[in-house]
TrEMBL record:
Subcellular location: Membrane
Keywords: Membrane, Transmembrane, Transmembrane helix, Transport
Gene Ontology CC terms: membrane
Topology within the bilayer: Multi-pass membrane protein
Primary location group: membrane
UniProt cross-references to InterPro entries, sorted A to Z: Na/ntran_symport, SNS_sf, YocR/YhdH-like
UniProt name for this protein: Sodium-dependent transporter
One Pfam family it belongs to: SNF
Naturally occurring in which organism (per UniProt): Halarchaeum grantii
Length: 434
């Protein structure tokens, strides 16, 4: 069998992982979620979830991946625990389902790039959203988006994923800083910032049962955890750099992009029709922003830049969603990567026809409230209570953290992560019935 692929450098791995993390979740959901859940107060809860639960969970996936050098499903058998294969399989299934609806939203972004060029959304933003977000146009754009995703993954780990993300991530950072700087000069900037971040702890206090699972779900989703993606990406590490170091860089960059997105979005909204109508989720964010671009002097250009940033963010994530199942089939069946990527992408395309006709929310809820927390719970229990100490010690290989730090992490993974996830699951599931 052919030699398994590896990243060409440490930076290559980091770009790919940041690419997976930075996505629609950062630029399109995070700012609005923050604004509507208590601003800076929500941010505190979210950052706690990211750093206290997300960061150690990323280390679980990196440890499994680098130790086994296998996709998320085969990894468990490779480590000698074949009956835990299901834990990885849940994640890979989640990534496949997510690819289907993520690609539909990616298709919307393509339609908004087209709309920025033609000026089609400048007049009536609501009508434009209606015409591109479901139906045949949505299916067509979804097809284009998934085809590009397949094209990148087919080229392989180094020539496809690494090369694409090495270009897209710096571009996202530079353009987003530019957008935020430009937005800061708008007349309503101050009002935008305060809408975004003004701390309202009473919102948290009165909605605790909704906000905790929302912040936790967002933390896992934004860091691409529970999907087997970070296991697959770490399995392509050919050298032993510091896993905690890499993970810290990834988590911090991901957070910076999310914060920056808010600094770009809210002044733009505040300078135009206001921010009040932008908190309703999915569609309203597109409508509110496109409406704002329609009112600004340079709105068409700014809109184009914004949606290009969003496209890069979405693509660098969707390739990781396709890579998780692809690496499983390539590793376990020895099939050719290109054939597998096309096959899985085609099935995800068909599955995505449902959300392209208006069922994005259903898919989203299944992933967020059920698959994600369940997958994270099992990998945490696996590394915490089942895997032998040799596998656990993979965490510190190539880094300067000592035995003591590894042990603290192990106990954190044994106790704190599972409890946090179970509370999240409980609150998330019960919120269905209230
Ligand atoms: N992290 C991506 C985002 O925030 O948009 C979404 C995502 C990508 C989730 C890849 C999971 C994944 F495996
Ligand atoms: Na991304």
């Amino acid at each position: 069998m052919a030699q398994r692929e590896t990243w060409t450098s440490r930076a290559g791995f980091i770009f790919a992982a940041v690419g997976s993390a930075v996505g629609l979740g950062n630029i399109w959901s995070f700012p609005f979620q923050t604004a509507s859940n208590g601003g800076a107060a929500f941010l505190v809860v979210y950052l706690l979830a990211v750093f206290l639960i997300g960061f150690p969970t990323m280390l679980i996936e990196f440890t499994i991946g680098r130790r086994s050098k296998q996709n998320a499903v085969s990894a468990f058998a490779e480590l000698g625990y074949g009956d835990w294969t299901f834990a990885g399989a849940i994640g890979v299934f989640a990534s496949f389902i997510t690819l289907a609806f993520y690609s539909v939203v990616g298709g919307w972004v393509i339609s908004y790039i087209v709309g920025s060029v033609t000026g089609a959304y400048l007049g009536d933003a609501g009508a434009y959203f209606g015409s591109v977000s479901s139906g045949l146009v949505a299916v067509g754009a979804h097809a284009v988006f998934i085809a590009v995703t397949i094209g990148i993954v087919a080229f392989g780990v180094a020539d496809g994923i690494e090369r694409a993300t090495k270009f897209m991530i710096p571009a996202i950072l530079v353009l987003l800083v530019g957008l935020a700087a430009w937005a800061s000069t708008l007349p309503g900037a101050g009002a935008g910032y305060s809408y975004y971040l003004s701390p309202d702890f009473s919102v948290i206090a009165s909605n605790f049962a909704d906000i905790v699972p929302a912040a936790m779900g967002q933390a896992f989703f934004t860091l691409s955890l529970g999907f087997g993606v970070m296991i697959a990406y770490a399995s392509y590490l050919g050298r032993d750099d510091s896993l905690p170091g890499d993970s810290a860089i990834i988590v911090v960059l991901n957070t910076i992009v999310a914060l920056l997105a808010g600094f770009a979005v809210f002044p733009i909204l505040a300078a135009t029709s206001g921010v009040g109508d932008a908190s309703g989720g999915a569609g309203t964010a597109f409508i509110a922003l496109a409406g704002a671009f329609g009112q600004l002097p340079a709105g068409q250009i700014i809109g184009l830049v914004f949606f290009v940033v969003l496209l890069f963010a979405a693509l660098s994530s969707s390739i990781s969603l396709l890579e998780a199942p692809t690496s499983y089939v390539v590793d376990s069946q020895g099939m050719e990567r290109r054939t597998v990527a096309i096959g899985i992408g085609a099935v995800a395309f068909v599955l995505g026809i449902a959300p392209a006709y208006g069922y994005v929310g259903l898919f989203n809820d299944l992933v967020f409230n059920v698959l994600l927390p369940v997958a994270v719970l099992f990998i945490a229990l696996f590394v915490g209570w089942v895997a032998n100490r040799e596998a656990v010690d993979e965490l510190g290989r190539g880094s300067s953290i000592g035995e003591g730090a590894t042990t603290i992490w192990l106990w954190w993974v044994r106790i704190v992560v599972p409890i946090a996830v179970i509370v999240t699951l409980y609150l998330g599931v019960t919120s269905f019935y209230t």
